[in-house]
Structures are given as C-alpha cells and as structure tokens.
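The methods section describes the discrete structure representation at length, but only in general terms. What matters is that the chain and its backbone geometry are given together, residue for residue. For illustration, here is how one protein appears when written out as sequence plus structure tokens:
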Amino acid sequence: MGYASSVWLGVLVFISIHGYGNIRLFEASSRVIQTPDQIYRTGYHFQPAKYWMNDPNGPMIYMGIYHFFYQYNPYDAQAGNIVWGHSTSTDLVNWTPQPPALLRSEPYDFKGCFSGSTTLLSGGKPAILYTGVDFSDNQVQNLAVPKNLADPYLTEWVKSPYNPLIAPNSVNKIDGQNFRDPTTAWLNPDGNWRMVVGNQQDGNGIGLLYRSKNFIDWIQAENPLHFMNYSGMWECPDFFPVSTISQNGLETSTMGPNVKHVFKASKASTDFYTVGTYNPNKDIFIPDNKSLDIGLGFRYDYGKFYASKSFFESSTSRRILFGWVNESVNNLEMNSIRGWAGLQGIPRRIWLHKSGNQLLQWPIVEIEKLRMNPVIEDTSVLMPGSIREISGVNATQADIEMSFSAKTLEKAEKWEANWTNPQQVCSTKGASVKGGIGPFGLLVLASKDMQEYTAIFFRIFRGDNNNFIVLMCSDQTRSSLHLPSSDYDKTTYGALLNVDPLQEKLSLRTLIDHSIVESFGGEGKACITARVYPTNLAVDGATHLYVFNNGSQSVDISKLTAWSMKTAQIN
C-alpha cells in the first residue's frame, strides 16, 4: 500500500468508528446587516457574496475543476471566526460557491482554521495542510483529505485523526504564536516529502523545513530551508521551481538542469520574493543575490497584494498566482455597513524573466473573454499639459493596454542619489506635480470636473551615469472626496521599472473594476494594485477615463486599446 493510500485509509477508518464529527453542515448567520452600499462591489474580481475574506489558500485543479479556498468569516465583515471558504470554476473567471471546506470543529482548530496549501499526492489525490489555532492560542499544523475522491467538486473534507501533525513544544522550542501557513509539499529525489512552515525567532524570519515519508509523520530538519536576520515574521511562505529556458510553469517537485527556485514570504503587508538555487541533498535554498533577499528586493506587487499563493496548472503548464487585496479603509465599521470586505486580485500567470533574477506577471488569458466593444486609437502625440478622454468605454469596469515612447530624453529630470525609496518619490512627485518627461499615463475612476481621479503614470529620470531611470506610480491622493478623509487610506505607491526607455516602449496595462485598479508596467515587470472609493461624482455612469501628460515634453502613444468588461458570474 502506498503512502497516499495509507493517508486515506487511516482517515476513513476513523470516520467509520467515530462518525462524521469533522463534517458539519454550514449554518448561515442570522446576523442582520445594514443595507450595504454596493457601488464598490466588483464585477469580475473574486469575492464572496458577503462577509470577510482574506488569504487565498490551496488553489488547485482537480478532475478538470479549479478549486479556490480562502480565509473566510461566515458571520461578519470583520476579521475573526476564520474557516476555509471554497469555490469552484471551470475557467478561473466565473465561480460557484461550495460549502466551506474546513470549519472550526476540533480542539486543535477551535479558534481558527488558518492558512495553508493543497498538495496532490500519488494518483492526483489532493490533501490539505493547514494551520489550526487551539484553545491555548497555539498554532498547530493539520491534515485534511476529501471524503469522496469521485466528487469533482470536493464538497466534503475530513480531518485526519492524527491531527495535530506538528505542534510547538518544549523540545522544538517553537514560538506557538508565530508558527503557521504550511506550503505545498514537494517530493524530493530521496522519495520523502518536504514542506515549509512560516516562523520567526528573535525577530528573524524563518522558513522551517519538515520531512515526511507518509505525509502524516513530519520531522523538523536541523536547519531551516531559508532564513534572514531581523526580517520579522514570515507568513504564507511559498516555494516553487521556475524554468530558465521556457515561460511554462513547472510542477512543484521539479528539479534538475534549467531550473531555479523562488522563495516568497509575506511580511509587513507586502509579498517579497527572491530567486535562487535549491540543493535537495542539503535541503537549503540560497538566493542568487543576497541584496535581493526577502524584504530587500523584488515584490509581487508594490501596492495592495498580500498572502499570495501559487499553484501549478497542469492542463496548460502554467504557474498561477492568487493574492488578497484588502480594503483601504481605516474605519473598519464601514466593512460591516457594506456587508463585505476583501477581494482577490485577478489570477496572474508568473514566469522567470530572461535575466534570471525576477519574475514577470500577467493577468491570465481567460479574463480576456470578458472584453467587449474595443476602442482602438491610432498612434498619437500627447502634448505637454494635455488631458484627453478615452470615450466609448465603461470606465467603471474596463481593461486598457497602451504603450508610450519619447523621441528625445533631453528634458529628463535628475535622479537624486538620496532617492532610495520609489514610493516616497512618487508621493513627493505625484500626478499634479509638473515634470520633465512625465508624469504621463492614465487617470481612472475620474470625475468629469477632475475633482476625483486615481493616476497611474510614468516619469523618466536621468541617473548619475547618464543612464535613464523609469519610475512607475499609482497616486490615490485625489481618489475620493469622502469625509472624513482619515477614514480612507489614500497611500501613493511606486516602483522602479527595469526598462531602457531608449530601446523599449513603456507598456501599461490597467484593469479597472469599481473599487480596484490593477496596473502592470513593462509587460509585467512591476505591478501596482490600489483600492479606491470615489464619491457619486465618479461612479457608475459618472465615471471617466483619461490619458494625460503633465510633463514639459511631448510623448507618443504608439498603442491604445480599451475594452469594456462584462460582469463575471461569481455567485
């Protein structure tokens, strides 16, 4: 009998003896919510019908059906009472809700079924590893498997009688308050499974490594897979291989030539990743460039995008990434008034850039089937100080692709040596601050009189070595006139874009969906996601979309196509 079969047999024997104590019918809350203002609900981004959602958990494909699990509060639009929500799809765009996969039902998860991952065992049998919070507030690692493998929708899951599989104790000296979020497991050449759990010790971020022969008995490795001093708690770690010669994704256990690995950790409301080499014999991961390690280098997104989780999509050989996009409100009672909180970003295909040191990200191609009524503009010139409306598009729910270029870069401003934080530069030099080459880009979710708008734009600077530096910004300072202004987080975000404007055009793709703006610069080299809440001046039929140039030099638009987006079926 194989290890996968033994996992199922042990669980099913437990059921036959003890009944279905781990499987309960989901009881909807009877709590009455104030009538929500739905103008900020999205049309094609995933969100449950109501209440709170945060981390994505264990996305996978099984029997041709996509499964998406997520941290969910089934009783309120605030954090708490966390279970695993569950929805299914045939196309990653339209989603059907299923009963929650994991409910708080046992002593080891009574205070919450926290984040985790799915792994496909031999024969494609799925298993969930997740963090439970016990009565003592200790975080422990647990296993669940489907009750019926013949059910493509996997509507019932059974918790292992061996839970908790891993728990803090006096021997391992693990901090039980910071021990969570097991990764998808991978099968090493020695035939044993490996997985990582996020942890911190004395302020140092750690990816604790565990080994198992049977997926039940896990032994902590002497050394972590990866760690970094003074980097804080590493939540929601992710570890996966990427090809150095192809844009195709790789199955999580892939190793060998032409393969690098990516280690990602979520910390300080940001998802950082680093590219490096995994040694399966020594069980260590070494970043290619220590200056690009966790917290120092690349981010999946330079705006709101957190606790992400990727999976290998076997039917099309893609690695696909999900990420949580939280609300930008400081008054949390507003979530209860609306009756919901939290979105998922559009799933992104990710692959290794030809440079080998960073990932590229792009919205999955399936989302393009929602496009309709394209507006195509020929090559045009944006004169200094100009603003031009893009008409004929549903500006509340749209997808825009465009490219910019400048015939000369003589008017590029100087990049100061002490400018080390792109976000601060974007905050100082926002869309309303006139520049040399830029700011130029898009004004989205804008009112007709320009009292409200969110700006996504580029600026080009000249470096000390006569090189050119491209700054990409998302400026929310004028996004809403709602009062009090302190109720809303209108942070400006920024990133440096690794593009040579002498040789390459500056591409920008922006997805707009009522209260979320996702932007991809440089064909996916930098991504910035924002949440904004315009007033009635710029919602529904009052929303406008503009291109603008607030620089002192003209720029060319070599490509501009804008589509209105249909509404996805997300029940």
The helical segments are 3-18, 333-338, 422-428.
